[in-house]
Specification:
There is one protein chain. This protein is an all-beta fold and about 180 residues long. The chain has strands at about 1-10, 20-35, 40-50, 75-85, 90-100, 115-130, 130-145, 150-155, 160-165, 170-185. About 0% of the residues lie in helices and about 65% in strands. The strands form 2 sheets. It has an 8-stranded antiparallel beta sheet, with no helix packed on it. The chain has a two-stranded antiparallel ribbon with strand order 8-9.
Length: about 180
């Protein structure tokens, strides 16, 4: 996938004057699945620039630095496996999307950009009848951020000065447990 993108920037000095900036969003992806008897396995991966955490061309500050409009690159991997024994299926999966940090991110004290999102799942499904499956599944979702560069305001010039180190990176973890039934008619 390749998609040219452009943006217009108005001049503060010359009213009505605009400058056009061009870039490209691109991505490559692949995946596969194999089944051998009771064993099922699938995997996929992608790499690209401007892809986003959820979909391509996501209009979000996660995709681009809101100060410089530079577009970040993303890498994603996902794998899932299952064992099927008669009416019972045991499943597990894991995936991660990582966001490359731009050089401008490393000196921008106003942003702590997302670093990665990780998901891990496990499930048990039981087919009660041809049209009814009971399920119990667990999902762990984690988002990590880079942390912002440590900064201070220079007392003489009033400018922001980048200090060594970073403000502590953030992390959010959410755990889900779900029980339910699927009925096919």
């Amino acid at each position: 996938m390749v998609q040219p993108v452009s943006r217009l920037e108005s001049s503060a000095a010359v009213p009505g004057m605009q400058t056009q900036y061009d870039d490209k969003v691109w991505g490559v992806a692949g995946g596969g699945r194999i089944e051998a008897g009771p064993v099922r396995f699938g995997a996929a991966a992608f790499r690209g620039k401007g892809l986003g955490q959820y979909y391509a061309l996501q209009n979000s500050p996660v995709v681009f630095n809101p100060s410089t409009y530079e577009i970040r690159s993303f890498t994603g991997i996902y794998a899932q496996a299952a064992l099927v024994f008669g009416p019972t299926q045991l499943s597990a999966g894991a995936g991660r999307v990582s966001i490359d940090q731009l050089e401008s991110d490393k000196v921008d004290a106003e942003i702590s950009n997302a670093k990665s999102q990780t998901g891990i799942s496990a499930a048990v499904y039981y087919r009660v009848a041809d049209g009814l499956v009971l399920g119990l599944d667990y999902f762990r979702f984690q988002t990590d951020w880079y942390g912002a560069p440590n900064s201070a305001t220079d007392a003489v010039t009033g400018e922001t000065v980048i200090l060594p180190g970073v403000i502590t990176p953030e992390r959010q973890v959410v755990n889900y447990v779900n029980a339910g039934a699927t009925y096919h008619w």
